[in-house]
Amino acid sequence: MVDLEFDQGLAVLRIDRPHARNAIALDTMDQLDKAIDEAEGARALAITGAGDRAFVSGGDLKELSSIRTEDEAAAMAWRMRSICDRLAGFPAPVIAALNGHALGGGAEVAVAADIRLAAHDIKIGFNQVALEIMPAWGGAERLAALVGQSRALLLAGTGTVLDAGEAERVGLVDRVFPRSSFDADWREIARQLASRPAGEIKRVLGGVSADEAVKAFARLWVSDAHWTAADRVMKRGNDSRLGGVR
Q: Which residues form the domain of 17?
């Protein structure tokens, strides 16, 4: 099943299929689609897995074994690719909290997020080649955007599985935290991102004109939230110049 909880402005989407190590079946795709619909309006969206063994262990081979024709395989790939596209295109920051291993399709879900935060003992890999197939949910293209085309081919072409430290070094994971504090650490960062400025920054990073970028800044400048924050900084006696925190 897929659970959705709200923590102030943060929506947390959790895949909870312990019997299959949070692998994705066809009904999971339907639930993911519905959960993304229900998360609309959240200031940040986090996706994680239940437990501490798996974020998402890929597609559920047992459930998907009935797919035998090219047309059926293509339909399944398009279905999950569209969900990953929805995560990537979510208007607010999306955080993949890698509570456990992210393998095959699980790695594809992870790279659909804007940011990947990992427990120190997880592994991540595009290891679909072990099944004589390839990433089909948009993960190959997103992997290349993150680590470069040659490294993406090396990783996905050989099915190399990286530990969290290696993944951070190549740019596949953004931050690594100790297992003991992982839940608190990723939630703290996700809450910080659940702010109006972070959503605007994501939009600008996605590619807008200079005019739109300046307009986004101006909208934030005149907001009550900006002036409340500015007054708080000035009352603390910090430098009142723009960006002035000593």
A: 2-193
Q: How many CB atoms lie within 10 A of CB 84?
A: 21
Q: Are residues 224 and 166 in the same domain?
A: no
Residue 157 and residue 145 in contact, taking contact as beta carbons nearer than 8 Å: no
**117 and 219 part of one domain:** no
Residue 58 phi, psi dihedral angles, 5° rounding: 110, -160
Query: Based on the domain organization, do 42 and 125 belong to the same domain?
Result: yes
pLDDT tens readout for residues 30-58: 999 999 999 999 999 999 999 999 999 99
For residues 46 and 159, membership in a common domain is answered with yes
* The model's pTM: 0.91
